[in-house]
Amino acid sequence: MAASALTSMRRRWVLLVNILLSSLAQGQEIPPPAYQLAAQRAGIPSVVLYAVALQESGVRRAERIVPWPWSLNVDGQSSRYASQVQACLGIHQALRDVPPTRIDVGLGQINLGWQEHRYRQPCDLLNPYNNLAIAAQILKEQYIPGEDWLLAIGRYHRPSGGTPAARYRHSVSQHLQRVLGPQQAFTNINSKETSP
Hints:
Elements: H1 2-25, H2 33-42, H3 46-57, E1 58-61, E2 64-67, E3 71-74, E4 77-80, H4 84-97, E5 103-105, E6 110-111, H5 128-142, H6 149-157, H7 162-180, H8 185-189
Antiparallel strand pairs: 1-2, 3-4, 3-5, 5-6
Helix pairs in contact: 2-3, 2-5, 3-7, 5-6, 6-7
C-alpha cells in the first residue's frame, strides 16, 4: 500500500514538472502587475500593453528584454537613463534642442507634443504608472470593437496607418508571440478577455 502511494505521488510530481516545463517551452510570460492594473483600468488586454512597452522601450537585461521606464527617443535617437532624475534632465535638454513632437518618453514612448493634453509636466511621463495609464488609454482609443488588436497597435504607433504602422504591428507581434507563446498569441488578444 505504501509503495503504491509513493508511486502515485511520483507520477503526480512528474506530471506537474512536465506541465511546468511545457509552459516554459511555449514561452508564456505574465505581464507584471503594473501592466495588468493599467490595462484593466483601460479595459484592454494586459499582454497588448506589455508587448507595446517591450517594443517601445525594451532593453536587454540579464538575457531578457524588459521595458525600461527612463527611456527617451529624441529626434529618432533612443537613450536609456539610469534614473528618473537623469531622464528628466534629458527631457529638459531635449526640449531646448527639438520641438516637443520629436520627443517620446517612458515605457510607452508617449509623445510630448501630440499627447500634451494628457500630462501636466513632461517629467510626469517618467512615472511608470502614469506612462502606462496613458499608453493604455491611447490603445483603447485606437481600438475599434470587433477588430484585431494588432490594427489598434499599428495606430498607436501611427494613427494614419500605412507601411510604418504595418512594420510596427509586425514588430509588436513578435513580442506577443514571446509573451503568449506562438500558438496562443493571436487568438488570446482578440478574445473579450482583458485580464492577464
